[in-house]
Amino acid sequence: MDIQWYPGHMAKAKREIGEYLKQVDLVVELVDARAPADSRNPDLKSLHRKPTVVAVTKADLADPQATNMWLAFWCEQNDACAVLDLQTGTGLRELFTAMHSRLSSRRRAARALVAGIPNVGKSTLINRLAGANRAKTGAKPGVTRGRQWIKARGMQFLDTPGVLWPKFDDQETAIRLALIAAIRDDIYDQEETAQWLLNHLQEHYPAVLSSRYGKNEDTHWLETIALRRGLLKSGGVPDTERAAKALVQDFRLGRLGRISLQWPKR
User: Fold this and answer.
1) Rounded to 5 degrees, what are φ and ψ at 32?
2) Burial class (CB in 10 A: 0-12, 13-18, 19+), 228
3) What does the alpha-carbon distance between residue 182 and residue 118 come to, in Å, rounded to a whole number?
4) pLDDT value at position 152?
5) pTM of the model
6) I need a labelling partner for 150 at 20 to 30 A (CA). Which of 110, 164, 201, 228 fits?
7) Residue 141 in contact with residue 118, Cβ under 8 Å?
8) Closest Cα partner for 97 from 22, 28, 20?
């Protein structure tokens, strides 16, 4: 399986972000706590030298031990960061503290560009800051397309579309991005992606599968999930494709528990 996804609107958005960066004082880069390294776009760093704050979203879905390890790793790298729960607003105070630590004193209101890959929570953060549904949100990639300036808490924030990079050289990175819904579901083999997730769970979270789906006497977890969920084709054959979708959805919604897909390399 070779996952690649870089539609035309992303190439256009990347060019526009390069222009917007000239107008801002700071970049707030959102990353998904379940895959913090893979959800940082390597192209973004090449576009600017602005002060940057890493905002870690969806921490409520990630393994807290792994998240703490990432925070320690970034601290060693002298990166400013904050962990956010955008559903409750937890962590916003820490985010503003981190932003101000990277800003020099100035008379006008500081401007920050909110950047990140698709479906990492950029528009949700903007709405949290503004205290209203000012920016469009959605649980799939590609919702934000245009430029949106939002005033909030004495600062101006520019919401930008989610952008990936043109080619994934590491297919495990692509799989992790697919699992966190940064890549559109219809452009990759969901059974193969689900099998990668199964292998990851069996290695790092061995009790999760039996806790959620019951004990399995063999290694064919997709068939087991299909049978337990009544996901059958004609003749009673387990529908492993629908089982794969159900497994991935359970992961995305946190029904499997707090699962991380990667840890920092030391």
Assistant:
1) -85, 125
2) middle
3) 5
4) 82
5) 0.89
6) 164
7) yes
8) 28
